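Can anyone check this?
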Amino acid sequence: MIAIAGSKGGCGKSTVTLGLAEAFARADTPAIAIDADRQLPNLHVMTDLDREPTLAVLDQGRDLREIAQQHPQEPNVGVVPAPKSSQSFEFSSLEEYVDIDGRQVLIDCPSGAGPDVVDPLSQAEGVVIVASDTERSLKAAETTIEMARRLGAPIYGAILNKCSEIPTPATRWEGVPVLGCVPERPSPLLNDEVSQAFDEIVEQLATQSPTDRAPPEYAGDRLPTGTNEIDRRLGGGLPAGTIVTLVADPASQSEQLLYRATGVRGTLYLSTEQSRENVRRAIESTSIGSGTPTIRRVAGDEGLDEALTLIDKLPETANLIIDPVNELERHDRSAYVSFLNDLKDQLVETDSIAILHCVDDDSRNRSATLRVADAVFELETVAPGCGSDVEHYLSVPKYRPDAGFTETIPIEFAGGNSMSPIESQPKSD
C-alpha cells in the first residue's frame, strides 16, 4: 500500500495516483486507487464514476475488490471513493483489507499536514511525495517528508508533477530519490508522454530494494522549528516535549516565526483573537515557507476547556501553536496552571512541541507561562531612523537543555530585514 502525499493542494496528487495505478496495470499488476480525502474527493470525478460505494462500507463487512469500481479506460484498475464527511471510518482498520491477490493499492491522501493526513499516511507501507515546480509546493513537500519520517513511513521517492526537469530544491532532499518528472500536458491521463513517464516511474519502483526503501535514521532527537538559523544554533531544533514562549511586541512581525513553524510538520494552530479564515489568509499570503495547519478558534469563558479538548487529540510529533496565549492567561490562575501542566504532559506523550505566542502586555498569569516554559525567545524590534530597514533582535534568556546558553541568533525575514543579534542573558529556573 503506497500513500501518495503532498501538503500543497493543486500539486496533482490525484493525477499521480491514477497515473501510477494505470501504469501498474499496464505492467501486469492490477491496482486499486483509494481516495482518502473526505473534504475534496476527486478520484471518482476524474474517472466519471459514482460517488458510492465509499471506503466506509468496508466496516460493513464488504470486500475491497467488491466495492472498487472499474476504471472506464483501464479494466485492471479499481477506484474507491473517499468516505463522506457524515460517515465514520478508521483508517487504522484499512490494513486488514489491502493484502488481496497481489494488487497494488494506492492511497490518494488529503492536502495539508494535519490529523486527516496522518491517519492514512501512518497505515501505508511507503510514501511517494508529489510536488509541482512552485516555491510553495516544493516547500510543502518538505513538510510531508518530515511528517512521513516522524511517522516511520519509508519514503519511496518524489514525483515532480507538471515539470520537464527536476527543480533545484528537490535535488537537496536528502534520502528522497526523484522517481521522475511528469510533463504538463492537456488531459494528462490521456497523453502518451505522460503515460510513458508513469511507466518509467513504476519500473523504477519495481527495482528498489528494501535497503533503498528503509527510512533514514534521525540525527538526535531534535525537532526543527522551521527557522534554519535557530535550528542550527540549537543542534537541529528543540527536544520533543518542549514548551517555547515567544515574547514580542504586537508590531514585531513575530507571527512570521509561527508561520515558518507550520512548514516543518503537522500543526494545530489555536487562535484566540483572529478567525480561522483570517489566520489562514495570513499564512497563505506570507512569502516565507509555511504549511497548511489545522486552525481552530478558542476564546471566551470556555477557551481553556476548548483548547485542552483539541490538545488531547494532538497527533504524534506535531506542533501546537497558541496565538496569542494572552487570552488564556486571563483565566483563573489555578485553572490556567492546571492547563499548562496538562499541556506539558500531552507534549511529552506525543513527542511534540508547543509555541505559546506571548504578545507583550500585563497578563496576570504571564509569570506562570514563563515558569513552565522550557525555552523563552524574546523578539525586539527597532526602527533605526528614517529610510532605514526595521531591525529585529532575538535573544534567548531561558533554555532548559543548556542553562548556560548565551549564543545569539541572527535571523533574516523575507524582504531583507534581518534579526540582528543581541547577547542572551541566561535565566535560572
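Reply from J.R.: I decoded it. The radius of gyration is 23 Å.
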